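Field reference: sequence -> structure
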Amino acid sequence: MSAKTNKNQEWLQTNDLGGFCSGSVSGPPTRRYQGLLCASLNPPTDRYLLVSHLLETVFINQVSTPLSNEHYLQHLPVLNLAFDFKNQPYAHWCFNLEGGKLEKSVLMLKGENTSLVRYKNVGHQPLTLFVKPLLALRDYHTLREDNPAVDVTIEGNTVCAQTWGEPKVFLASNLAHWEPIKNWYHQLYYSEEAARGFEATEDNFCPADINALLAPGEILLLKFSTQPGPVSEKPFLEADKCYASLSDKERFKADLELAARQFIVHRESSNSSTILAGYPWFTDWGRDTLISLRDFQDFMEPNEAQQIIKTFLQYEKNGLIPNRFPDNADDDIEYNTVDATLWLFVAVWELQQKHQDLAFIQSIFSSLTKIIKAHIEGTDFNIKVLESGLLRAGEAPWQLTWMDAKIGDYTVTPRSGCAVEINALWYNALKIYQSFQKTVKDKTLDVKPYIKTFEKSFASTFWNDQMGGLYDVVIEAEEKDEVIRPNQVYALSLPFTILPKAKQKKVLQQIGEKLYTPFGLRTLALDNPDFKPEYKGDTWERDEAYHQGTVWPFLLREYFVAYEKIYGSKKAKLAMSESLEAFKNHFYHDAGIGSVSEIFDGGHPLHGKGCPAQAWSVAALWKLVKMAE
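Structure field:
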């Protein structure tokens, strides 16, 4: 691969704690979040971008070649280097230089806030490598706009740097000695931040540089960590050995599982696992975590998956589980969601279908009862069951469904009332609760009347005979939103389907004709006057497009699950073949290499956008791969 081919691609390594290292394949960081060490100090939160990137120069026969460079606001250098890149089992470059060849590898250690960089001379001549590490030393959401005093100490092959009130970072090497520099590099420029309408410049600090003479076959190891310690090549060798044992047929599925495992991290507050919504800027969101858990449980221990359920139930409040855990562990947990709590029932159901663990259901049943009661009687954000049996939700200024884009006081997609997917989820929660109730033989709450009332009301309220589909939102059975959106797919795909087969086919046909793309479902039909063909621009422009046509890959899972339920496995496999081929190419060659993006443009979905590594997008692809077997 050439540098030009890869200029918009990103790589990612994670540490099972919420920490990560990432960057652009072709050079210096393009986002504020990219760096060689983003440490999570209170897993998976309190993340600090400590080491930004490396300025590297190679000398061979007195010829100087920069491997990387810094981008400045008025100067965007282009390095015309020939290199190959791969992201498995770690980030790896092979540079073809004048007179030689050099390999560079980056690996993050599991369970530690530690990143390793390895340089290996694989050419036939000796070379000299100069490296300057640039430090950001900041919260990972912010930019370093000032130049504070940095305390720097050098002992042997280890440098320690720290600004007041921030964590220490240790830089160590296996070969050479560090030379103190203590220089600030000003106005470094992040092009992706500028494209998103954000502040895009900051200052980085270089505490010291290092140079190493590498004979053919010799290596230089660098270690960046929040803890001091020895430097070893062993983690690279172990990763190589494990990966080499895979056959070519196993490799894609193994790579996909590795991508999925990057989202499964430790949560310190509950001493259990959780699932992050995405890298680099998301934490664990109730909705995203539980949707992803449905498929990620395939390679999790049963107890690990159950602990995620118990973690969210541990933080239940007034019948609602958290919408999201904040980036700062000291901030209040947010509860502004209606669907996350209902997704918990579906996740538990699918987990239970696989493991049949009666003790687990018994341990959480009282919490499930409390949640059902709260929804029936009414709880926060005006969430309450109506006389019709339908569930309504919505209270200004909150957006409670997954279509939650807001710009100040402006709600892009207002969905207060009875939303179609919320009611499909509510029906499933009732049916699942009823099933569990029989299992544990508990008659505390009789939900049968609520189920019957709902079944009488749903189709008559939501069915739009003229369109041959379901209304997206119904407001008190009077005002009905006829906009064609993908949310109706959940009335087909969830475990308990309420519509008769004939109407299921009509809904699926409408989605297929109006919303389907190989990369996911559009959030709005192409012929709608509010349709936004591109996701681009500043915050306002992007949020306006977020749910107004933009394609979401995670919805493709529901589409093909519904397709299989209606038409059978054989036809579903044929129907999904185009998507699988497109996604495999995206997975290896586009946006976040070795992962699946959050979204795609609605008009012509070609390249991933938004978050470059999104949990429920990876989970959807995993489900499709399994269905195709």
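Note: The longest helix spans residues 420-440.
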